[in-house]
């Protein structure tokens, strides 16, 4: 085919056509091409081998806050300021916290019992649920709840999200369920829009819970006088209050009421040295405490040690709300938990100290 | 196509394998593994930290449980993490149990820690209170005085209890417990005011005793919880998996390496093959170029694409077609299409090529200047992978000269073959080996063999002949295959056919010689004499008898009459002649048709025969006329017989369908005496007498008398002579014509017609030519009529041409009678007419009958040649009715053959006539004549004739007879096939 032009020019009857062989040049080109191709394949092969294993450098270990770090070893620790809070989610949580749609009959919000203006709890022995239903246990404060080891008096919730189920589902509290709440909120365009803005997947049950929990994380009172004192402000509390603090430690209160929350991070039997429930005519289920969770005899009447943060604001006291005044509570504690006599003067000083634990939350301002 | 798929599949498989191996080698778990190990390490640290904080809390170095709380959360998170850990997920089966075990351990540990926290707080408070309580108690006791023993007891309790809180000796514990019980027992020794304090002290001391032991156990259990060991174990599992995986990757690496190596070598091999292939290819290309050069030198080459467009032509193509290369490229081969070959021819060609087969054939092409050239063409389709042609290479050789020679040869051969095929003689040619080379149909028929069977057989097997007289086998010497050079002719030969049938034949045997006189075979020509004799007998009979009734015909009747007249003169005997004319025959004919008429005549002939004696002659003289010869019968008796016949006919009823007819007959009787003048006078007299009988009232007998003056005038055709003469004088003729249709030219204009004549009698009625032309022929009036026809034809043609130019190109056929052919002045007359009217000679075609032409061959030839020289054309009319037509045909330079109408009419029914028509048509075509079919009266005949291949058609089935002048003025008249049979106009 290649020699078309040459035969084209030739007239008939003239010399026959011939082909010029281009052997010599092509051989070299072919050889070079072959070597190039081989090296290309070789390179591809070499590249295809896995890289040598990377030498492993362990990630630096994030050391937890050491007790000595603070400078002086105190049983009570200052409340850390809330950080890393998503403002949109927190705002949503706040709105939900005050939203009565979370209750079955739209009458109660979280704030109905955990009144943020009343220390994050109400002043009743037992809070009233929907339709005037009476609760079975005294309402703990929502303030600083985030720093507890577990939630409810018996510590049956191990996460804040689980804790939400309690009040929402109980028929004698808000008597609702998450599906209903989701439907109610879905009708509110502003909720839908705000959730869409705050969450990729918009309004969902998990996101409702997350918003509430996020808001709860902001409900801390990190700036009480005693916190300031712990942080180094020696004059944040007066001498009597310092004495009260000393007595608090000396009497052994701080054996349980310690840590950031001045309690809240362990369980203790109510009635260590004497039987608190002896002589009580009616032992309710709530009185059984952690026994209801674990079923173990050792947990009978064991409760999560309540936080003493803002304790002055959250009367009445104990799970059964049996102490209406702080003095009563201190006396009861001395008798049943410490097994000691305590003078009225010491009680007064301790109460002075306890008042320094009352802090302010940003929400209240 | 399949191979292509296979290759693609192979490539895909190789790519997939490569990809798979590559993927496998890229599987690097080190990141996952490192992460997992990190997690485990952090887990261990968290666990250790937790343990540390437990211990710190236990020994009051840590005053709050927040670190333990955080440690709890941390450990729980770690448990969660190792369960979600990506690396452990990969090996879930091996590590899930481990993770579960660790989770369980952590859970237990955390529960123990909770317990620890609670108990630790209690123990702490109790140990804190004990010194304080003892101090208060001792102070109070000291105030009382006299209570040293109690003070000691209390102090000892404090000391021992506190001692116990740092030791865990069991005997010591029992000892301390004993002390506590002692104090309890000696409670009453204490002042009542101090007893509550003492009670508190005892409670706290017991708490210390209880909690210290429990706490130590708890701490021990917490610290010794084998979480770290479990984590190490998990790490080991991870590491094991990791190593296994790395080993697996190593295997894949090696496999990949090997695979790639094999592939590499394969690629190299293919490159090498390609390279060597290229060298071979170059060689092949060189060879091909030489071959192409050689091909171009020899052949006409062109290449077309699938669409038939020329994409390459060589110089020879351009040279022979006279087109330049540029004129050809992009065109298709229709450029050189000569139009000779049918669509089917090319369709077959494309079908062959379409199947991918090579096509061979000979094609006539057309040059640029319109000349033709023949090529022997070989077309090779080039097929692509899918088996579809993508171009066609056509290689042609110029065979124009071969073709010309071949055609000439073929024409010769065909003429000979067709002739041999058609002739009634048997012809056999035998090669020198005595085997038959050729046997024509007649010879095959007679021998009883089929031609194709007989060929190559030995002559003696096929052609068994014997001397008819001696019954000796003949031709045995021909077995050698060579006859005497001068030839042998034998007339009395018996041929025994294959079936044993015997034929009397005449045969001639001649030697075939080549140019040098060498024998190349023998030719045997023979014909069946038996058939000819039978035919002769038949013809004799037919010549003497009427076909319809089987009675004697006019010719025989005349002969017998002559014999009778002679016998009368010789022997002086009296005979009688009767003429019979049926009276109501026309009624039957008109109301029931010719078939009924024919049937009536047949029945009547039987009736008549019964009425006369056996020795008498009953003849049908024509139409409804009968004649009877009564031998040795005086006129009285003859008259009586005639009367009897009248009565018989009168009694006879002819029934046709539902109709019944009565008949009458008028009979003229003439005596045949020695005095009778001549046959013609006798017949004339009988005719006259019959007329007289009719005139005098029908159904009666009239005996002729010499003085019968009235009848005299009316004798026979004589009547017509003055009528024709007066018609000529008064121009009482009219010209009609019948258009002649050309084959395969429907909807085109007629180009031919035959001019016909009609006479108009004294009262203005048209007389058909059959009525007066026989008389005109007999009394020599035909030359005058022919002249009248010629003159008026020319005049009308001329007049029509002036008004209607479309007439030009129309060819008019004019009949020339035998008498005119003999007329020496006719040629001059025709010349005059041409000059006078200026009619183009090409427009005139003369029709002469075969018999007439042959009877006056010399004169006819002169006339034909003269007129043809002028430009006129000639047609041979009624061809086939004569006997030796074919032989003369070669001598008559006519242009058209008009096949005898009787063949045409019967060819639908009669196979012999059909074969005859075919033979005439073939011979006519071979001789280059156009053929015309007459009497095409209906569609069936038309279809049959068309099938034979006749060129022109004439008859009522094609077009009716119409006025010549009208036809010309209406020119051009379109041809259309007439479907139904129509009665003639006249």
Could you characterize what this model shows?
By secondary structure, chain A is an all-alpha fold. Chain A folds into 2 domains: 87-218, Cytochrome Bc1 Complex, Chain D, domain 2, CATH 1.10.760; 222-364, Cytochrome c-like domain (Cytochrome Bc1 Complex, Chain D, domain 2). Chain A is 39% helix and 2% strand. A two-stranded antiparallel sheet of chain A has the order 1-2. The longest helix of chain A is centred in the N-terminal third of the chain and has 26 residues, at 23-48. Chain A is extended and about 115 Å long. In chain A, 40% of the residues are buried. Chain B is of the alpha+beta class. Chain B folds into 5 domains: 126-220, de novo design (two linked rop proteins) (Up-down Bundle), CATH 1.20.1440; 299-398, 2-Layer Sandwich (Beta-Lactamase), CATH 3.30.450; 425-534, 2-Layer Sandwich (Beta-Lactamase), CATH 3.30.450; 551-714, Reverse transcriptase/Diguanylate cyclase domain (Alpha-Beta Plaits, 2-Layer Sandwich), CATH 3.30.70; 732-969, EAL domain (TIM Barrel). In chain B, a hairpin with a 5-residue loop joins strand 6 (426-430) and strand 7 (436-439). Classes of the chains: A mainly alpha (365), B alpha+beta (986). Chains A and B meet through helix 2, helix 11 and strand 1 of A and helix 1, helix 2, helix 3, helix 5 and helix 8 of B.
Detail the topology: elements first, then pairings.
The complex is a heterodimer of chains A (365) and B (986).
Chain A: H1 4-9, H2 23-48, H3 87-97, H4 110-113, H5 160-169, H6 178-186, H7 189-198, H8 205-218, H9 225-230, H10 239-250, H11 253-256, E1 267-269, H12 291-294, E2 302-304, H13 326-338, H14 344-355
Antiparallel strand pairs in A: 1-2
Helix pairs in contact in A: 3-8, 10-14, 13-14
Chain B: H1 2-26, H2 30-58, H3 66-84, H4 86-90, H5 92-144, H6 148-166, H7 170-185, H8 195-224, H9 227-298, E1 300-305, E2 310-313, H10 315-321, H11 325-328, H12 343-354, E3 359-366, E4 372-383, E5 389-398, H13 400-422, E6 426-430, E7 436-439, H14 441-447, H15 451-454, H16 459-462, E8 464-467, E9 488-496, E10 502-513, E11 519-528, H17 529-544, H18 554-571, E12 575-582, H19 585-592, H20 594-611, E13 617-622, E14 625-630, H21 635-651, E15 653-656, E16 659-662, E17 665-672, H22 679-695, E18 701-703, H23 709-713, H24 720-729, E19 733-742, E20 752-760, E21 766-767, H25 769-778, H26 782-803, E22 811-815, H27 818-822, H28 826-837, E23 844-849, H29 850-855, H30 857-870, E24 873-879, H31 885-889, E25 896-899, H32 901-906, H33 911-926, E26 930-933, H34 939-948, E27 952-953, E28 962-963, H35 964-969
Parallel strand pairs in B: 17-18, 20-22, 22-23, 23-24, 24-25, 25-26, 26-27
Antiparallel strand pairs in B: 1-2, 1-5, 3-4, 4-5, 6-7, 6-11, 8-9, 9-10, 10-11, 12-14, 12-17, 13-14, 15-16, 19-20, 19-27, 19-28, 20-21
Helix pairs in contact in B: 1-9, 2-3, 2-8, 2-9, 3-5, 5-6, 5-8, 5-9, 6-7, 6-8, 7-8, 13-33, 19-20, 20-21, 26-28
